[in-house]
Structure formats: structure tokens, C-alpha cells
Design goal:
9-stranded mixed β-sheet; alpha/beta; 2 domains; binds nicotinamide-adenine-dinucleotide; 6-stranded parallel β-sheet; globular; single chain; Rossmann fold; 17 strands; Urocanase fold
Length: 551
Amino acid sequence: MTGNREIRAPRGTSLTAKSWQTEAPLRMLMNNLDPEVAERPEDLIVYGGTGKAARNWASYDAIVATLADLDDDETLLVQSGKPVGVFRTNVWAPRVLLANSNLVGDWATWPEFRRLEAEGLMMYGQMTAGSWIYIGTQGILQGTYETFAAVARKRFGGTLAGTLTVTGGCGGMGGAQPLSVTLNGGVVLIVDVDETRLRRRQGKRYLDEVTTDLDDALERVLAAKAEGRALSVGLVGNSAEVLPELLRREVPVDIVTDQTSAHDPLAYLPAGIAFEDWRTESARDPEGFTARSRASMARHVEAMVEFQKRGAEVFDYGNSIRDEARQGGYADAFAFPGFVPAYIRPLFCEGLGPFRWVALSGDPADIAVTDQAILELFPENEGLKRWITAAQEHVEFEGLPARICWLGYGDRAKAAVRFNELVAEGKISAPIVIGRDHLDSGSVASPYRETEAMADGSDAIADWPLLNALINTASGATWVSLHHGGGVGIGRSIHAGQVSVADGTPLAAEKLQRLLTNDPGMGVIRHVDAGYDRAIEVARERGVRVPMLDS
Ligand code: NAD
């Protein structure tokens, strides 16, 4: 079976599987491959370079057939996107367990991964691609918006009005950058080699304008900056060429970051290779392409460091570009920080992270009910109110209607249990799927991103995501995933995900309460263990049990 078909999750309240616990993973797998959601659905690629939802079309068909027939005391095992077994378990056990892209330490390299991928033995699962909880660009929007808000507070008096941000990569995740900057009042120039990516974000109102001409782009962004008017402009170009040119022209840039797919050197287009030749060149000579790609990233990061020297706020946005540039021969690549230590770690100490949910009915009215519930549950949280209001106004749904909002320990369980009540009361027309990114407070070991510069030096310890997957499996999740590589590339991270289903039953209420207490609780204990004062306070205030905390 080839990819010449369009996948779209069923909508409405009739089941195609035996229960909502299996209908949910079925619809979410299909939703990941909806052309409105996925970047290259014909190749099963959802986002993040080559992040896939299933290994191949035969595996996809077999997963769908198995889920349609799975009982509520059975568990399907998925190994790098291929369904490999079904076992009898119990109703509290997950319906699906997934392990994607995992390799033993010494073998965890791109060449070995690519060899196995070419043999048909593995796939790249990214974070939410292979774990079936990608919700389109909105999935990263609030995190990106909050990151730019943190930059505004740190450097620009609380607003980005009158500032110019320059970034690259307007793909599945990177496409959230322009709207995040404009929601903070700023001006952004976003560079992408692929015009279709820029047009796609423009079509969904994540990006205001697109041009192929640098002079034209600069005229527009500098005028907006001077007037203090929010504006996003997409420029078709290569960041490795555009950034040095901006330096040469002494363009007054205030903030620089990047979200090209730098974590995978084959998914980053080096300067000097034409866009049309990208796929054939990378397939013909992956090693040679990698070397050229890294050399380009070295120039790209060198320009970022130069902007920092000239006073701009510069940060790595979670794509490993610093390490790739270092391997490309640029020694000062780590001169600027990653965004987690710079802005996000204090949130992680409270178990705060990207909580998200999806209306399986396909009805946007169901998300409106959940939005209202969030506002009623947390009336004192001004930031949350500002976010939900902005999201309602600016976010166009891609695929099944969904919402994201960052919630912490205690609050996630409260929200989930409330959603379950609303389903039980019939105020929401069909069950709600509740999940999160793998990028979360206690679910990932990633020394260039989520666990960069931990207070106790424990950046590379991967016991934590393993424990996270185990506790979620034991706490009532509907599917649990354990991946390697994610946003930063092979060899650089281990991370876990969980998804649950608020189907309105008392059993779901019990599972949600435990799962959504324990999962963010991992974030609290991980940061307690590393010695963060705020995490210790949160553990004490909210009763998170840590055996050796007070001994
Ligand atoms: P994507 O593959 O959908 O998009 C990447 C984009 O980069 C593409 O549009 C591509 O055309 C463009 N690109 C490649 N080389 C370029 C170059 N030299 N100059 C300009 N544009 C170029 O990936 P995505 O889902 O948007 O993710 C982007 C990166 O961010 C990945 O490395 C991903 O792992 C990482 N990521 C970060 C976070 C985070 O929280 N910060 C979260 C998810 C993913």
C-alpha cells in the first residue's frame, strides 16, 4: 500500500473500535496523518524533520486493524512504528505501549539509525509523532509565546513592541514562532528555504506576510519596528546565508533564535545546495551532506554569536544547532544558552508543562466548553486567562479541535477530572483525549535542551524518563511511549509520553486523578533531587512524598 491516500480521523460519537479507550488511539493516529496536521503525510511524516506516526503503510494498516479489534483488557505493543504483539493485561493497563527509535548507547548514532531505518527495522518517532498526540502547530504555541514573553520581561520591559526578532524554520513547530512574537507585540523576520512552509503558516494565520526578496522583507519589518507595530514576515531564504548578510548590513536585530530542523543534518539545507536537489543529494551521500550541513550550521551559529556580541538576546530553541555547529568546526557554538535553563526551568520545578487535550467528536464547541472550564477552575491565574483568550481569537484548529495550556502539579488532575465530569454530564459530546508533549518537566533527559545545566550536573541521567514511563503505565494511562532522539537527534535524548481518555466513566475519573497527579509529580521530584529550592517548596506545600527530602 502506498501513500496516495488521505487519512482523516472519524468524527462524531459512533465508535469504529470496541470502546473509547481504543477509539481514542485510533483517531489520534489518523489525526497525526491528517494533511491539515502532518507536514508530509504521504511519507507518514508528521513534523520535526522525519518524525513519523507509523513505520510504513503496511504497519499503519495493521495498527488500525488491531486497534479496531482490541479489547479493554488487552495491550498492543508498537516497536518503532510497527505493531509487534498483543497481550492480555487488565483494564488499568495501557491499551497501547510504544517504544520508538531506541538504541543501545554505543550504537546511538545517526549512521547506525539510518542503516536500521533503511533495513526497515526502525523509524524516527520524534516526540508526539510516533506517540500519536501531535496537535499541529498549536502544540508548541503557548510554550513559544511564554518563552518570548519571558524574553520581553527579561530584556524589554515586558513587551516586544519596537523589537525585531530574527529566526529560521517555519515548519510544524517552528511555525509557532511568528504568531508568538506578534502576540507579544513584536516584529519578526522568519527565514525558511521552503516557500510552501511559509505559505502554509500564512494560510493558518500564524504568519502575516511572505516575500522572496530580502530588501523588501527588511523594508517591511523595519517600518513596523519603528512604528512599534506587531508584524511577522516570512522570507524565502537560507538562514546560513541570510543571517551573515543581516550582520553585514548592520540590521538592528534585538532577538535571535532558530527552529530549523538542525537536530537532523539531513533535514537542514546547507548553503550552496539548491532546494530542488535537497532530497536527492541527502539520499545520494548522507555523510557528505552531513558534513556540508554542519559546516553551514557553523556559519549560521557564528552569526548568532556575533549578534549576541552586538547586544541581541540570543538563545537555542531546542534543535541542537549549537552541537551540530560545534561538530561543523565552530568552537564558540555554546556561547549562548538553551531556552530551558534561560527561561523555562523555574516552571519545570512546579511540574508545569504543556498539558493538551483533543475533542474526539471533532466539534469545536467541545473545546469551547473545556476552555470555559479552565477559566472557571483557575480564575486567579491571569496568564492562563490571557492565553486562553488569545488562543480562542488567533488559533485555527488543524485536524481534530485541540487546546494546549501549561498547567502544573495538582492543576492537571483537577482539569482532567472536570473534563471527565463534563463528558459524563453530556455537556461535551464525546470523550476528550488528554496528553502532553514529551518535552515536559519530568519526562525527559536531554542535555542540550530540557536537562541542560542541571544544578547537580545530572543532565545526561536517563533513569528519570524511564521511571516516568513506568509510573504512568502503573497509573492508568491509555497509551505510554518511550522514545529516543526527539527534538535534538539520535544520541542526545531519552523521553516518555502518556495519553489518557476522559470518557465520562467513574473508572476514567480514578485513572485521571492518579495519572495526572503522578506524571507532573515526576517533574517535581526530578527537580527536588537536583536540588532546586522551588521544587522542594512545591513538594512540601503540595504533599509530594520524597523519602529522603527531610532526612
Ligand atoms: P520541520 O521539519 O517541520 O521544519 C523545519 C523547517 O526548517 C522546514 O520548513 C525547513 O524547510 C526549514 N529549513 C531547513 N534548513 C533550513 C535552512 N538552512 N534555512 C532556513 N530554513 C531551513 O520541523 P519542526 O517541527 O518545525 O521543528 C524544528 C526544530 O525544532 C526541530 O529540530 C525540532 O526537533 C525542534 N523542536 C523544538 C521544540 C522546542 O520546544 N523548542 C519542540 C519541538 C521541536
